[in-house]
Design a protein that fits this description.
421 residues, 4-stranded mixed sheet, 31% helix, globular, binds uridine-diphosphate-N-acetylglucosamine
């Protein structure tokens, strides 16, 4: 098991590349099984979660060619409809394959997915929608078996919460369904738009309405296409927090500023300066950052839950008291105890966390319990005095390509000891 050692309180300065979004790449990779021709995916991040998706595709019978950030997938000969439990358990997003496999094979056999420990992460909305479309589902011993007796039916599906995964699964299971499938209260994250854009390039007919519904008009076939994954807005936010905590001056290359619209006001409130020119974002700060009054996580276009932990790590160093309200996941404060180990003053009560900023924190040994919590430890370690040692890096490697290399390039004293898993 590898560990990250960070010698903190060194100013970061320089350029950082932002790669493709993990949360976009994963559903797009799953959706390639619906395409009769070759798909060329550019800007695909090199991450363990992407590797798991490629292993699933290969297991199902797809041919994969990989060259750095470009992946070519040919799913013509897919002949399996099951995913082994050991692959399902490696990441929660493996559940996105369910909709795609049902769409292509009219049956599927998967187990309940694994993934981040963010409290209960049910898939009831996914399964309810599939049932409504005419899928027969049997659940036994952690296994989900699905089959379509006749044909899938186009439906008006109303989500009680705009779940990202459920929206993706419904889109994937309905692309070939005759008529119009309407998803009311669909998720609107940029990664959903990227999936829709990819599918439309392959010949799908999917559009969004002003009221926030997604409408899928069934087509008989999807071709292959070439597609570039959108930039990772959460990785961008993480580097922004890392630069701010060290009072640095960095240039992020390859961002989409529109996707960061809920992030900019938070940094502005903290006194961090930003300037965007095309796909480049410069960020700098001269004085100690100020607290941010409220950070309330919400579905897009609200403040993303995935950015809560890294902003909290930054707020631990800010002048004044910041308040966080986590509205998306029940158990997304596991990084708090670790921040406290570093000397942060954070109190949690239910969905709310109150952070009283301290001028400095002191490096120590900390653990990561989930992907973004791991990133928060990196941000805190970069800001803290002395050495911070972070363990459980398998979480970090699920979502951040080359993080230590990128941080080292801009002046961080960071090194990994031991081999990646
Ligand atoms: C996706 C993202 C994840 C992000 C989350 C919220 C990917 C690969 N992951 O996860 O990084 O944090 O969106 O933006 O894109 N829920 C139910 N029943 C369901 C489905 C969801 O109750 O059937 C609940 C969840 O427990 C959670 C909330 O809805 O509390 C949001 O979940 P959802 O939007 O589905 O997140 P994911 O798709 O798992």
């Amino acid at each position: 098991m590898s560990k990250l050692l960070i010698c903190g309180a060194h100013r970061l300065e320089g350029r950082v590349p932002i790669y493709g979004a993990k949360n976009s790449a994963l559903p797009i990779l799953a959706s390639t099984i619906l395409c009769s021709g070759e798909c060329v995916i550019h800007n695909c991040p090199i991450l363990s979660d992407v590797d798991v998706s490629l292993k699933i595709l290969e297991y199902l019978g797809a041919k994969i060619q990989k060259q750095n950030h470009d992946i070519i997938i040919n799913a013509k000969n897919i002949d399996r409809y099951d995913i082994p439990e050991f692959l399902m358990r490696q990441m929660r997003s493996s559940i996105i394959f369910l909709g795609a496999i049902i769409s292509r094979m009219k049956k599927a056999k998967v187990s309940f997915p694994g993934g981040c420990e963010l409290g209960p992460r049910p898939i009831d909305l996914h399964l309810k929608a599939l049932k409504q479309m005419g899928v027969t589902i049997e659940e036994h011993h952690g296994c989900i078996e699905c089959h379509v007796e006749k044909k899938l039916k186009s439906q008006e599906i109303s989500l009680s919460f705009p779940s990202v995964g459920a929206t993706e699964n419904i889109i994937l299971s309905s692309v070939f369904v005759q008529g119009k499938t309407k998803i009311i209260n669909a998720a609107r994250e940029p990664e959903i738009t990227d999936l829709i854009n990819f599918l439309n390039k392959c010949g799908a007919k999917i559009f969004t309405t002003k009221e926030g519904s997604v409408v899928v008009e069934g087509v008989s076939k999807l071709t292959g296409t070439e597609h570039r994954i959108i930039p990772d807005r959460i990785a961008a936010t993480t580097y922004m927090a890392a630069a701010a905590v060290t009072r640095g001056d960095i240039l992020l290359e390859g961002i989409c500023s529109r996707h960061l619209s809920a992030i900019f006001p938070v940094f502005e409130e903290m006194g961090v300066k930003t300037c965007v020119v095309k796909k480049q974002l410069r960020l700098w700060i001269e004085n100690r950052p100020k607290c941010v009054k409220f950070v309330r996580t919400m579905p897009y276009p609200g403040f993303p839950t995935d950015a809560q932990a890294v902003i909290m790590a930054l707020s631990a160093f800010c002048k004044g008291t910041s308040v966080f309200v986590e509205n998306i996941f029940e158990s997304r404060y596991k990084h708090v105890d670790e921040l406290v180990r570093l000397g942060a003053n954070v109190k949690v009560e239910g969905k709310t966390a109150i952070v009283r900023g301290r001028r400095s924190l002191q490096g120590t040994t900390v653990k990561s319990y989930d992907l973004r919590g791991a990133a928060a430890m990196v941000v805190a370690g970069l800001g803290a005095q002395g050495e911070t040692c972070i363990s459980n890096l398998n979480h970090l490697d699920r979502g951040y390509e080359d993080i230590e290399k990128n941080l080292k390039t801009i002046g961080a004293l960071i090194k990994r000891v031991g081999k990646k898993n």
